[in-house]
Amino acid sequence: MAERRKAVHYLNQFFGQIGGEHKAGTEPLVKSGPVGPGVLFQELLGAEVEIAATVVCGDNYFGEHIDEATERVLSLIKGFNPAIVVAGPAFNAGRYGIACGSVCAAVVDRLGIPAVAGMHPENPGVDAYRKTVYIVETKGTTAGMREAALKMSRLVLKLVKREPLGSPEAEGYFSRGIRRNFFAGETGAVRAVSMLLKKLKGESFSTEYPMPVFDRVRPPPPVEKTGEAVLALVTSGGIVPKGNPDRLESSSATKYGKYDISERSRLTPETHETAHGGYDPTYANADPNRVLPLDVARDLEREGRIGRLYPYYFATVGNGTSVARAVQFAREIAGDLIRDGVRAVLLTST
Amino acid sequence: MVKEIERAGIPAVHICTIVPISRTVGANRIVPAVAIPHPLGDPARSREEEKALRRALVEKALRALETEIEEQTVF
After folding, report:
1. Contact A163, A84 (CB under 8 A)
2. A306 to chain B: nearest residue by CA?
3. Euclidean distance between the first and the last CA atom of chain A, given in angstroms as a whole number
4. Contact A234/B38, CB-based, under 8 Å?
5. Could you tell me the pTM of the whole model?
6. A221-271, pLDDT tens digit by residue?
7. A94, B1: Cβ pair inside 8 Å?
8. Three-state SS across A42-109?
9. pLDDT tens for residues A55-96?
10. Cβ-Cβ contacts under 8 Å for A124 (sequence gap 6 or more)
11. What is the pLDDT of residue A2?
12. Does A345 sit within 8 Å of B38, measured CB to CB?
């Protein structure tokens, strides 16, 4: 009988069946065997790989103590002496994606074993960790669980059996930027000309050498006279007037709000609340200044440290919200700000 | 959003808890916050202490906006 190899699965508090946002502060702990989606993974991995244990950590605990949480999770994983580590899938959950990526990168670097995670292309964990970790492309939500588990399990089995991997496209993971030599059927000249012919005919073709996309914006020059400048407050933390008049969605937001604060010296639980569905709203609802710091911004304005606060603030919900939407919101917001002579922006995120 | 506001030419400072996410989305001036559900507060402290903490973060953010930088910088 073939040797049964051990895997450890990393999950957040939600998939690890501890609880929702109110349990997001949970510190790393171990559960024996597969848990939650791990049951599906175990079914797909069959007899060759055993999920010996599941390590669970709350997304907030991880996000707020990335180095410490990574160390603690790594030492729990190490105790099982696994052949491979599986994390997530995290879909488009940003905190969870960063946690999965950080754990897997530490596993690869420090334990010298492979690790497989699963994420949506817009998860910030992809760009942060794709070079070290096999990150399988998934849908944005748990609706893609089965498909993700199938692709991830297939990759896990190949890795533990040390079978040769195909291209990232064939295996379904994000390219790690590694080039492997192989003998092609045709010379480079023939391939290049046939690619050019396809291009001229308007047919689809795929390059053999994709250019990296660096979409960076150079830092604008600093604000010169903050004491004379107009500063605007913006948040992705979902702070809205009580009752959420624009009905900002709690996740995957399709809009933002622009709200008058010209008559306000601070936000209060009676007037404002959060519409964000991706974090425990208790603290933001009890004191919305914890997310949108209007109270201290007004103090600083009165003291002359800030020239003037823009009479409106802008808010959206950054929770699984697509990059395309966020770009659109920010362009529209920037249009207003430039028209009204705003010279600096303070943007807060939860 | 931070990146797009800066693309339009207005310097923007990002106060957020998970710095790697801020880096990935292309913020240039980054100020680490307190915690995810309360980036500019700490319910474990008294009201006065909490407001002082918030003020310190906003003041740090203003200094970040006033600082000449060449690349992504965590303040």
Report:
1. no
2. B62
3. 51
4. no
5. 0.79
6. 999 999 999 999 999 999 999 999 999 999 999 999 999 999 999 999 999
7. no
8. HHHHCCCEEEEEEEEECHHHHHHCHHHHHHHHHHHHHCCCCCEEEEEEEECCHHHHHHHHHHHHHHHH
9. 999 999 999 999 999 999 999 999 999 999 999 999 999 999
10. A94, A97, A98, B20, B21, B24, B25
11. 59
12. no
Q: What stretches of A256-322 show up as alpha helix (H) in DSSP?
A: 282-286, 294-302
Measured between its terminal Cα atoms, the distance across chain B in Å is 19
My answer on whether omega of the bond before A219 falls inside 30° of 0, hence cis, is: no
Contact residues for B22 (Cβ-Cβ < 8 A; gap 6+): A349, B2, B14, B16, B30
Residue A331 to residue A339: CA distance in whole angstroms? 12
Q: How far apart are CA A296 and CA B48, in angstroms?
A: 12
- A306 by DSSP, 3-state: which? coil
Percent with pLDDT over 70 in chain A: 99
Nearest CB to A63 within list B17, B68, B73: B17
